[in-house]
Amino acid sequence: MNVEEQAAEFQKTFQRIRSELQKAIVGQEEILEGVITALFAGGHVLLEGVPGLGKTLLVRTLAQCVRLSFSRIQFTPDLMPSDITGTTILSETDEGKRTFRFQPGAVFASIVLADEINRATPKTQSAMLEAMQEQSVTAGGAAHMLPQPFFVLATQNPIEQEGTYPLPEAQLDRFLLKLLVPSPSFEEMEAILDRTTGAGQEMPQPVIDAETIMGYRQFCRQTALAPHMRDFAIRLALGTHPSSELATSNIKKFVRYGASPRGAQALVACAKVRALAAGRFNVAIDDLKAAALPALRHRVLLNFEGQAEEISTDTLIQELLEQVSAQMVIKVPL
Amino acid sequence: MNLVSPPLHSMLQKAARRIRLLILVRTLPLGVLAAAAAALLWSLLAHAGLFHPPSVFTAVMLITGGALCGALFALFYPLSPLKTACITEERANLKQRLSSALLLQSSAIDFHAALLADAGKYADSLNIKQLFPLRPPRSLYAAAPALLLLFFLYFLPPLPYFWSSKKKADYAEMHRQARIMLKIASLAKLAAGKHPQPGTAQIARELKRLADAMQHNKVSPEQAQLQRQQLTSQMKEMLNKISKQSSLSQQRQAARLLQQALNEAKKHREQNRPQQGAGNDAHMHPPHAAPSAAMRKALQAVQKMQQAMQANNAAQMQKAMQQLAAALKQGGLTQTEMSKMAQLSAALGSAMKMAGMSRKQAEQMMQMSRQMQGLAQPGAFSNVPLSGSAMQSIAAQMQHLAGQLKAGRAHALDSQALEQMLLAMQNQNGDVTYFGMHQPGSGINGLGARYAPGIAPAHPNAKLTYAGRQAVSGKGKKGSLSAFTKYLKMMAHKHPDVLPNGQIKGGKSRNGDQLTIITRGAPTPNIAFSPLYQAVETGKREAESALVIQRVPASLKQQVHNYFAGLPNSK
User: Fold this and answer.
1) Last residue of some domain: B158, B188, B213?
2) Are residues B64 and B200 in the same domain?
3) What is the pLDDT of residue B534?
4) N or C: which terminal CB in chain A sees fewer CB atoms within 10 Å?
């Protein structure tokens, strides 16, 4: 199969996954697209929204669509790290000998739903760090590889609620995207009610397997990123730093730390997937713009003044986008 | 390995040409607009009198220059293939396909080859003309009215309807001068017939041609003035030549006349000699036996005057006249000599008039002749210097002084001088009668009415007589010279317009409590001409406008306003 055929096939698959997800999820187009993009980009997703918006349903449906092992961890304040990663237990063999055996935790699945991740203590949250970055778990002096693909979808309520622990910066940085789940519109609410309270409900069908996903992950990385598009991405990433000359005045005023190189990687990786999904072989500015908010919003940390002024990181990134876009515009007296 | 897609390459070339054309379409009117605006500004400043107005040629060259600059900008605008690709894909919404393909065309990766093929496919499907349509730019909509305005500025003003009042007045004056010039031209034509001086006819023709052109506005007032000055100088030269010719002939004629008068005088003397010799009645005519020394001097002076007249030498003439006057002052002329001298002087005066010499000198000569004639009469006052013309001269001075007194320009001392003059007249038994329109209360002929001095030498009581309008007896008033003098003194001091020095000219207000001084232009600094409350109001407004410019934060504006509102107001 040549490149064009592969690209066409990928585009078709992407669309099929989306249509399968749409059988269970009403609306939320950007969330669906973001989740699928992260799946092919090889990153994890943090879904943030108030309870009852269908975050868990989305993840469960995705697991059904992609024909992968699925695990759900309900994060609670008393959840221990070993509950997630697994632990070494003493077990008796058939011969009657007692040995230590590693009992894998809930994280040992291809798709892991970390539900309400900010309800667990930071210690427990940190248990996910190695798994998410290294795709392995070290327990009892031995490293245990996680199944591939390994895809974590965490949900969290807005951190202002009581009984929650905000995710540490290192943990946040491990998420490829942070998607804000919006409340449904009137029409979407009508469809949700009709679909969920009616007699019959259409079940999503599996579309893709693990091997194909891994293949597509490699394929997506080949998407062409021209120098000027790379320049755009770099400007965006560096522009989030208050010390950078590319930063806007508001970023300089309200931001403590900007996006790490991981943020730029996330930006480009997502843009590549979106370009291929749109039937293009090259990354466009629109792809980078679409990926900018989900990829950077959780990587920009506000300073005290920013928090006091209730500045949204989305607003800052939007300003930066406008500034960088303006710099990229070719001015010709036409 | 060069993977440049031919369709992409071809499309980029087409697009570059089209973009350059579009730039040209935009910058050309922009250049024209800028140039037209500059020309308009120039004309505006010229209208304000700061510069000379640009000529049509200058304006056309300016606009051509602007258009050329616009065209050159478009032709040499740096337009790289990448820039072309970026502009094209932006217009066609190709999502950076073309620019990415262009930048990655040298790559050997399969994916990039696919990208290049994809870009080529899209490039091939593009319609460049549709993508870059030719539309009239906004600058054209601005340039067209600017050009139209400039056109009107240059080609409408020649129509009299659009002339300024000053220009209309200039042209009316030019027409008036043209009418005068036409008359002069016809006179010059006549003169050309009488004095066949070469070039006179041509000047007449030129004058008529210029006058016609001026009447039909074919020349501007300035040009007309220049040409008229040239023609006037030519005419002056011509007239000088003609007048020199005529004066020479007149002088010769005058000299002949004078020679005849001298010959007559000689002949008369010769005729008298035999009578003196024949008769024994020497005591009867002792003074007339031979010309007196004064007469000889006077005759020499007259001969010198004749020579001066022949030589057209004014200085020599003046000298000779002085010599004659000295001879006459010396006295010693008999009545016969006086009579002859009077005849000679009359001849001299008429000769001088004829010769076109100084009119004043000729008049003096004639006057002298009349005086001598009067003195030559038996019973005349031989030692009285006051003649009729002298009285007339004194009367004229009196009138002048009286007029000055009336206008408040004469000093009181002038009235004393007048008094002395009048006393002198009184001592000489002079009697002057004035017939004027006005009564003494209105001054002596102060408003320019006629007067007629007369003399009655034997009158014992000198009087000034003021007559009424028609000089009807009984309507006027009569008074003595001393009464008249008193009146003049009174006028010198009581005239309402004559004010002490140092008093400020101005006017009193109706209320009488305020002196109004009418001033023009800006008042001098450090002197206040405005009431204090007005100054405070003005200062307040200025301060507020300054604050508006300073962009005072909204929260502070009220505070600032309150501060200024709280300033003490003396209203």
Assistant:
1) B158
2) no
3) 61
4) N
Burial B381-397 (b: 16+ CB within 10 A, else e): eeeeebbebebbebbee
| Pick from B27, B95, B104: CB nearest A286 | B95
Residues B177 and B260 in one domain: yes
Contacts of A281 in chain B (CB under 8 A): 97, 111-112, 114-115, 118
pLDDT in tens, B323-366: 776 766 665 666 677 677 767 777 776 766 665 555 555 666 66
Q: For helices A3-24 and A210-221, give the axis angle rounded to 10 degrees.
A: 120
Domain that holds residue A170: 1-78+109-195
CB of B105 within 8 Å of any CB in chain A? no
What range does the domain containing B185 cover?
A: 171-275
Asked if residue B403 belongs to a domain, the reply is yes
State the angle between helix axes of A29-41 and A3-24 in degrees (0 to 180), rounded to the nearest 10.
130
B90 touches chain A (CB under 8 A): yes
Same domain, A73 and A161: yes
B287 within some domain = no
Sign, CA dihedral B443-B447-B449-B454, equals positive
Residue A85 in any domain: the answer is no
Q: Closest to B96 (Cβ–Cβ): which among A3, A223, A226?
A: A226
User: Which residue among B83, B115, B132 places its CB closest to the CB of A282?
Assistant: B115
Same domain, A16 and A159: yes
pLDDT at B358: 55
Residues of A in contact with B86 (CB under 8 A): 330
Say whether both B122 and B51 belong to one domain. Answer: yes
**Residue B221's pLDDT band (cuts 50, 70, 90):** confident
CATH of the domain at A26: 3.40.50.300
The answer to whether B428 touches B386, Cβ cutoff 8 Å, is: yes
* Contact list, B100 vs chain A (CB under 8 Å): 224, 226, 229, 282-283
How far is B103 from chain A, CA to nearest CA, in Å? 6
In this structure, are B143 and B182 located in the same domain? Answer: no
Q: What is the pLDDT of residue B416?
A: 47
The answer to whether residue B187 neighbours chain A at the CB level (below 8 Å) is no
CA nearest neighbour of B148 among B48, B33, B30: B33
CATH code, domain with A261: 1.10.8.80
Residue after which a domain boundary falls, among B255, B275, B295: B275
Domain count, chain A: 2
Q: Are residues B142 and B252 in the same domain?
A: no
Residue B284 DSSP one-character state? T
Query: In whole angstroms, what is the distance from residue A315 CA to residue A330 CA?
Result: 25
Residue A277 and residue B39: Cα distance in Å, rounded? 58
Q: Are residues B181 and B77 in the same domain?
A: no
Tell me which chain B residues have a C-beta less than 8 angstroms from the C-beta of A283. 96, 100
Tell me, yes or no, whether A244 and A186 share the same domain: no
Residue A286: list chain B partners with CB under 8 A. Answer: 95
Q: A72 and A13 in one domain?
A: yes
A3 contacts B113? CB cut-off 8 A: yes
ipTM: 0.84
- DSSP secondary structure code for residue B96 in this structure: T
Residue of B nearest to A333 (CA): B23
- A179 is a domain residue: yes
Structural domains in chain B (count): 4
- Verify that A39 and A159 share a domain, yes or no: yes
Q: Model-level pTM? A: 0.55
Same domain? A16 vs A129: yes
